[in-house]
Structure formats: C-alpha cells, structure tokens
Amino acid sequence: MISSRIRFFCIRTLCLFYITMLLGSCGEEQASVLRGPDVPDDWPQEFTLAFFMGGDAAEVVERQDPVRGYLQEHLQIPVHLHLATNYSAVVEAVRSQRADAMMVGPLAYVLAVEEANVEALGIIVADNGEQSNYEADTDSVYFSAIVTRKGSGIETLEDLRGKNLAFVDPASMSGHLAPRNHLIKNGIDPETDLNAVFAGAHPTVLLSVNQGRVDAGATMLGNLYRLEREGMVDFCGFREGQIATPEVIAANYAECPEGGIALIALTDPIPGTPFAIRADLPESFKAAVKQALLATKLDAALQARMPRPSHYIDPSEEYGYAHLDEHYNSVRQLANLLDLDLQAIADQ
Questions:
Q1: Rounded Cα gap, residues 179 and 41, in angstroms
Q2: For a designed S-S bond to 312, which of 45, 122, 195, 272 qualifies (C-beta 3.0 to 4.6 A apart)?
Q3: What is the third-level CATH fold of 144-268?
C-alpha cells in the first residue's frame, strides 16, 4: 500500500504540473498580444501582477485571470500573473522588479511599502452584499470573527479560557493578528489563557470548529458566508438590516440552533486588501491602471467572468486622505502595539 507521504508527494506533483501548464497557456496567450499603437513610449513593455498562491494556486489563477485580461485590454500591453509561495516572496518579486504590482493583505502591504516602494491604487470590494447587512460603511474594510459551534459551552470571550482556539496563520491579519489583538483588549492572553493552534487556512479553521476538532476559531467573516453558500457549514449570520452590536451578536447566538456556527465576537474593522503598484512606474501608467481598476464595477462582461464578482474603490476623498496609503495607518499602529517583526511574519 502506498504510504501517505508518497500519496502526498504524488498529489503535490500533479498539482504543480497542472499549475505550470495552466500558467504556461496563459503566458502563450499573453505573448501573442501586441503592444497597442497608442501606448506611451515610457510605459513598461509588459505588466506583471504578483499574488500569494495560498493553498490552491489553481483557484488563484481562476479568480485573477479575468482581471488580468481586463487590464491587458485596457492598457494594451501584455499582462501576466506571478504566483509566490508566501507573502515575503510576493514582496520580493515586486522589490526585484520581477513583478510590477501586487495584491496581498494589509500587513504584507505595509511591509511592501517599506521594502519594495509600492503605493496603493485601490481597495478590492467583494460584490456579495453581506457586509452592508451588518455595518453601515464597510466597503473599504472587512472584519474577523471569533466563532464556536453552538453546544460547545462557549457563549462569550470569557468562556474561551482554557479552550482550544484555531487561528489561521501567524502572518494572517484577519486569521490571527486582528483577533489576537481583540482578545488582548478584552483581557484574554492568547499565550496563557488559551490553547492556540494554527490551522493553515481560513476554511480549515471553520471546518475544524464545525467538526469539533477545536472549541473555537478565528477567521475573516466573509469565509463564514462563503462556506455557508457552499453547503459546508450552517452559519448563524446577520439578518438583513441588522447592525453588529454586542447585543445583536448575543441575540443571534441565542437563536442559533444546536450544531450551528455562532459568532462570539467581531474584531475592529480591518483595512481592505489593496491593489499596490511600484511607485517608480510612470505617473501616466499608474493613473491608467487606477482608472481601469475603478471602472471594474461598470464592466458587466468582466463581472460575469469573475468566479467571485468584485470591484475596486478609492475612499481617500471620503475619509480626507491625502493618499490612500493613510488607510493602512491602523495596521501600522497594530504592528507597533503587538511589537511585530513584519519581515519575520511575512517569511512564515
């Protein structure tokens, strides 16, 4: 019988082969694109977008390729995807100019500003309608949730003491750092008051809670809605028009049936994922990229091609920012508060 180690190796090899073939076919299509006749001479010959592949590189390609094609059409230059194995590798790809732009979480973006001289052009917003149900203004932010399985005996944060709680990854903002900070603010030390583990991925956290392998978990709120849509969990989420006050969270918990996934708490808002670009690229090129990004919501064909419809916004005027980068000052403050080594976290 083939050992589990060999089976894992075979599966991993097949997955890598598949991704290589998929990216290769994309590259052939991109290489056939001619530079448009009206493209300014100082624009780059091609444009490469870097992403963290996470646990499913094929899904990342499927999700991002529509935007790649959209930008290629609007910029009239070849646009490529570059997948990296961790956040640090994404930042390094941009720093070394093997990539020109990136989409990573807010913590890795803050590191990239320091290490790779990038600037934010827009914030991605998922067009799922969920956040408007529980918060008045959430387009530019998202939330992390601490959840349990109804019947676990956990109803409040205080009940977590001595229990097993699954975080996502040490470098995850919504899957570790934001909920960690929320626990500390509420008098709970994750180092001494909990048995904390890292599950490796947002879905894994939720499935571990659902299957009773851990008592509670921390994950981004959107992950709960997504797995509910896919029929993997029964999530007792917010109803239309509800605002996420502690009283509403407690009431929803009480109404949640046994075995359902129930909220215990939501963190403070987390700045949304930015589209960041090399700051040294020509201003006219950066302006063209930004213009294209901010028009994504209006492109019906693009939205139809997206597995998860989304668009980009720049709330700078709304918040009175001189530059969108100011939206991420709260992340910098959190990093200082928790005394984080951003480079060490990105390397994990």
A1: 47
A2: 122
A3: D-Maltodextrin-Binding Protein; domain 2 (3.40.190)
